[in-house]
Amino acid sequence: MIMLESSKAFGSFAVNNLEEAKDFYTNTLGLKVTDHPMGLLELHTPSNQAIIIYPKPDHIPATFTILNFPVKNLEKTVDALIIKGVTFEQYTGQIQTNEKGISKSKHGPHIAWFKDPAGNILSLIEEG
After folding, report:
1. What residue ranges in the chain does DSSP mark as E strands?
2. Is residue 2 part of a domain?
3. Which domain holds residue 121?
4. Each residue of 68-86: pLDDT tens digit?
5. What is the mean pLDDT of residues 48-68?
6. What is the torsional sign of CA 85, 90, 96, 100?
7. Minimal CA–CA distance to 43: which of 34, 56, 122?
8. Structure confidence by residue, pLDDT tens digits, 91-113
């Protein structure tokens, strides 16, 4: 029987341009990104193993959120990223967002979605 309870699992996702991804995750989001010798990027966050970003020239973005960032103050974080040129998604169906792209549902956390340069959907989720 194979047991994985001690395995340090990590996530990964594709982008169509590593240089654009490195610039966005480093300079726009302010995250630590390092080059990996295998031609990949490693995205470092305080609570995880490194998240691998790998090149895929024919990349098609997922239609769901691939990475979530918990934040203490959603409104301030959204404002700071808007100043850096991030555009937040606008939803009008089952999920409703305000003019900034923030969903303030009674049934879940306050959340805002945005895309990286490859079209991957990311989110900010207000903690607590």
Report:
1. 12-15, 32-36, 40-44, 51-55, 65-71, 102-103, 111-115, 121-126
2. no
3. 12-126
4. 999 999 999 999 999 999 9
5. 94
6. positive
7. 34
8. 998 889 999 999 998 888 999 99
Tokens standing for 125?
């989720």
- The structure's pTM equals 0.90
Apex 81 CA angle, 78 and 86, nearest 5: 105
Report if residue 6 sits inside a domain.
no
Reduced to 3 states (helix: H, G, I; strand: E, B; else coil), residue 111 is strand
Q: d(Cα 68, Cα 18) in Å, to the nearest integer? A: 20
77: domain CATH number is: 3.10.180.10
Number of domains present in the structure of the chain? 1
Identity (one letter) of the amino acid at 18?
L
Question: Measuring CA to CA, which residue among 48, 41, 30, 15 is closest to residue 116?
Answer: 15
pLDDT value at 49 more than 90: no
